[in-house]
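Protein modeling request. Please complete all fields; requests missing the sequence field cannot be processed.
Requester role: graduate student
Desired output: 3D structure, token encoding
Chains: 1
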Amino acid sequence: MRTMNDWPPSLNSADLCRVRFALDFLSPCDLLQGDLLRLRRPLMMAARQGFVGRGEDPELRLRRLFDPPLSSDPFAVKRFQKPSPGFVVHPNGIADQKLEAGDRLVIETLFFGSAIQLMADFILCLQNLGRSGLARGEGLFELTEVASVGEDGQQRVFWRQKMSLESLAPQIVTIDSALEDCLPAGRAYRIEVITPARLLHRGRLLRAPKFTQLFPFMLRRVSSLLYACCGLELADEAGWLLDAASRVAEVDSGWNWHDWRQLGEDHDPVGGVTGHLTVEGPDNAQLGWIVALATLCGIGKGAAYGAGQLRLFDR
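Delivered output (315 residues):
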């Protein structure tokens, strides 16, 4: 049985790269609540344009970045979710922003394990997206620099506009060092869901989730991402973790529903839940490292693009 600071030792060798992309705007943009959560389609369109005529099969590069293949191991296919992209965009909330020409927007994105090698393709996607606009054709921009954050917390630029995308050298940290920065210190902590999380439980959307409903989403998301990108198997931990989660006491909670995407006049809006819950009890000491990992990965549909982002605070 593990404790708060006793995560699997394999996390000590799993790589993570925290990257900050600087977008300098050439035209105005009303960046609405949820626009950054809808980046998948515009990024893929930009990728199709950017990958053409650049060596390797464009569709293969596209799938590798945005739609990773299933594992060749049939047992892994049963145990883990379908692989999601190996990057996670962190939009830092969902507030509207009015951007003008000359303004800068910094988008932080985490790359896990093998996905770090795909960073050049991601940069190419952003460069092409800048030519068509960040949201609804608004907000033309240039990607002017890309920085990474090291274990010392210092940001260092490793790419600037007009530099080659070959031989990128971002700072890489281990996942366990990232955990140290967000792990709760005690047995009571507050979990905040700061961007809408779309969570389907037994065929129904959760609008006021309990911790016992929320934790399995965290565990599945974390274990699937780490298996796909880092080759780590946390499935052996699942049984006792879920058992411990069932004994956690909820102190308080508060939830709101956000509709952030309209698919068309004939469809209901797509939304998700934001809010918080506070939990306490001795079993929290066994679960903290999974909850902390979930703050890096996000949960629910669209987590790779910033949906279902979590923050964790000591109570």
